[in-house]
Specification:
The complex is a heterodimer of chains A (about 300) and B (about 375). Chain A is built from 14 helices and 2 strands; from the N terminus they run αββααααααααααααα. Chain A has one domain: MetI-like (MetI-like fold), CATH 1.10.3720.10. By secondary structure, chain B is an alpha+beta fold. Chain B has 2 domains: about 240 residues, 3-Layer(aba) Sandwich (Rossmann fold); about 120 residues, OB fold (Dihydrolipoamide Acetyltransferase, E2P) (Beta Barrel), CATH 2.40.50.140. In chain B, about 20% of the residues lie in helices and about 35% in strands. Classes of the chains: A mainly alpha (about 300), B alpha+beta (about 375).
């Protein structure tokens, strides 16, 4: 009885992962090894089981790594990867810079304010991500609210070009992913025992050095978690660069989209996706390690 | 405790020429409308082990936090070595504090925790390791130097906290319920360790506790607090034997409080009428009392003798009936009902084994005590 229950309990999440993650991934890998063709679906070979063993042999014989060597040979792709990495890294850093003080302020706020502040951080999730990014187009465009405001105050006399530049992409990513940075840092800071800071001061620290020597190191797991939660989705981000970045921003998510929908080159698009996944595996593993370490430390 | 005649008794508080290390001068602390500390004046001397004792919310922790610099007095002054401490922030004070939660830095090893304060001081870099080693030896933690706080036991953590707060050799060490998180056996052992360390280092200790036994064990003087006021500041034996109020008598240890009225006073001898038809209690009091004045007579249970036959020649003899017996192993407490339904507790050391004792429930017994055994409390 318990044996069966255990089996069901273990099988449920595994079959979820197998059906909704592993099998789709294998399909993508298979497409990335195929050749493009003018057919439906637009690639060959297709597995034809009616021909029996010969069909299977034929199928595997026609798979090759041609698309991957194409990715390596065409500078478009690796510049897109590098540019994505750069944009993801810089915007993660900016998000950390902005998110930490906000999280710190929330953790220092009086107890009765905290749920409200938390609500304010989460509130944007109640509207569609896409709509919020569209809203930024309205804010950042040449005739947008930001330029109108700056012209009205007299700080500038000609409108700033922000939309369709990398700056707009940074603004979009920092805005969109800020809650993912704030929440883990806040949860680390909130758990921090106030008497640790008092102990540091008692032992000769000024307020600043107590922050530097105690608060900051103890919130590091939260900072690391936040950075991964921003970096990982930002690297493959598609909506923000395509809506706010215009043609001037090269990001791999956008390249992938164009390969898939504009060129209808499913095999190359799949190869781009597989490489993106391989790049992301490293930070994902590091993230898991960080979480594990934290669990151990909490004991 | 009898001191050998050639050894001077440590009692700087009795010496008017002695300068106090800490002086509270009419200190009041208010949090909004709430008065946590109410006009306290108090001297604490060098090398003292001073205990602040009281129920939670009596202001003892606030008093200590003011010494550490985490709170400032609303009124009055706190002087350390004659210097007003109000403008000095916690990180520049010659005091260190051991926190109730220990407040060990979880990301630092035991060694680094102890070295933390030294690294922030102007101590030369090469002086730090020997000092840390010394502290590790003092608290018997040498083997755990490399461990993180979550890898050691509660008792060891307590010792790390102590070592860390002592490392900078503060003029004054503040201990906030330092043994609260330990179980009873470990707590008792640690109390003696604390006293040893206090003696070895010669540091002045101020300890906050709500455990009267702990205060009595470790302290050279105990301050009993209630509602932000000092009720009595005295040596443990005087607090126990000569409480100045019903509150102190009742707070420290077990006590019988008998209400009565003074019939007459002859020198230090006074008679207290406590029940109709009963002979008055013969007591001793230095304070002048007037006839008819309402007083409380406090007497500790262990000073009341219990016998099955009426004893001769005792100053006070009261008849009663055994109502209850609490057997605690080493001692037994007899709850005896006397005239007017009043309960009086008598405590007897169990020098004989159980089978040889002859008093049991509902026995008619005689309670007796001398005329100097109890205290007359005027309030």
């Amino acid at each position: 009885m318990t044996g069966l229950r255990r089996l069901v309990l273990i099988l449920t999440p595994y079959s979820w992962l197998i059906f909704f993650f592993l099998i789709p991934f294998l399909i993508v890998v298979k497409i990335s090894l195929s050749n493009t063709a003018l057919s439906i679906p637009p690639y060959t070979p297709q597995l034809d089981l009616a021909q029996g063993w010969a069909g299977v042999k034929d199928f595997f014989g026609n798979l090759d790594f041609e698309n991957f060597s194409f990715l390596a040979s065409d500078p478009l792709y690796y510049t897109a990867y590098l540019s994505s990495l750069k944009i993801a890294l810089i915007s993660t850093f900016l998000t950390l810079l902005i998110g930490y003080p906000i999280a710190y302020g929330m953790a220092q706020a009086p107890d009765e304010w905290r749920p409200t502040l938390m609500m304010l951080v989460i509130l944007p999730f109640w509207t569609s991500f896409l709509i919020r990014i569209y809203a930024w187009m309205g804010i950042l465009s040449n005739e947008g609210f930001l330029n109108q405001f700056l012209l009205w105050t007299g700080i500038i006399d000609t409108p700033l070009t922000i939309l369709n530049t990398p700056t707009a992409v940074y603004i979009g990513i920092v805005y969109g992913y800020l809650p993912f940075m704030i929440l883990p840092i806040y949860s680390a800071l909130e758990k921090l025992d106030g008497s640790l800071i008092e102990a540091a001061e008692d032992l000769g620290c000024s307020k600043a050095s107590a922050f530097w020597l105690v608060t900051l190191p103890l919130s590091r797991p939260g900072m690391i978690a936040g950075c991964f939660l921003v970096f990982i989705p930002a690297l493959g981000e598609f909506v923000i660069p395509s809506l706010l970045g215009g043609t001037s921003t090269l990001m791999i998510g956008k390249t992938l989209y164009e390969e898939f929908f504009s060129n209808r080159d499913w095999p190359v698009a799949s190869a781009v996706a597989v490489v993106l996944l391989l790049i992301l595996i490293i930070p994902i593993i590091l993230f898991q390690k960080n979480e594990e370490r934290q669990r151990e430390a909490n004991g | 405790m009898a001191q050998p005649a050639n050894r001077p008794v440590f009692a700087p508080w009795d010496d008017p020429k002695e300068k106090p290390l800490i002086r509270f001068q009419n200190v009041t602390k208010k949090f909004g409308e709430f008065t946590a500390i109410d006009d306290i004046t108090l001297d604490i001397f060098q090398r003292e082990f001073f205990a602040l004792l009281g129920p939670s919310g009596c202001g003892k922790t606030t008093l200590m936090r003011m010494l550490a610099g985490f709170e400032t007095p609303s009124k009055g002054q706190i002087l350390l070595d004659g210097v007003d401490q109000a403008p000095i922030p916690p990180n520049r004070r010659a005091t260190n504090m051991m926190f109730q939660s220990y407040a060990l830095f979880p990301h630092l090893s035991v060694w680094d925790n102890i070295a933390f304060g030294l690294r922030r001081s102007d101590m030369a870099k090469d002086q730090i390791p020997p000092r840390v080693e010394e502290m590790l030896r003092l608290t018997r933690l040498e083997r755990f130097a490399k461990r993180k706080p979550h890898q050691i036991s509660g008792g060891q953590r307590q010792r790390v906290a102590l070592a860390r707060s002592l490392a900078k050799a503060p003029k004054l060490l503040l201990l906030d319920e330092p043994l609260g998180a330990l179980d009873k056996k470990l707590r008792q052992e640690t109390q003696f360790e604390l006293m040893d360390i206090q003696e070895t280092t010669g540091t002045t200790f101020v300890i906050v506790t709500h455990d009267q036994e702990e205060a009595m064990t470790v302290a050279s003087r105990v301050a009993v607090m209630d509602l932000g006021k000092m009720i009595q500041v005295d040596t443990p034996d005087r607090i126990y034997e000569m409480p100045n109020s019903v509150y102190v008598a009742d707070f420290i240890g077990d006590v019988n409080i008998i209400e009565g009225a003074v019939r007459g006073q002859d020198g230090e001898k006074a008679q207290i009428v406590w029940a109709e038809g009963q002979p008055p209690i013969n007591a001793t009091t230095a304070a002048p009392v007037s006839a008819g004045q309402k007083v409380h007579f406090a007497i500790r249970p262990e000073k009341v003798a219990i016998a099955t036959e009426k004893p001769e020649g005792r100053a006070n003899v009261i008849a009663g009936k055994v109502h209850d017996i609490a057997y605690l192993g080493n001692i037994s407490t007899y709850k005896v009902e006397v005239a007017g339904g009043k309960m009086v507790k008598a405590q007897v050391a169990n020098e004989r084994r159980l089978a040889r004792r002859n008093i049991t429930w509902d026995d008619e017994v005689w309670l007796s005590f001398t005329d100097t055994a109890g205290v007359v409390l005027l309030n």
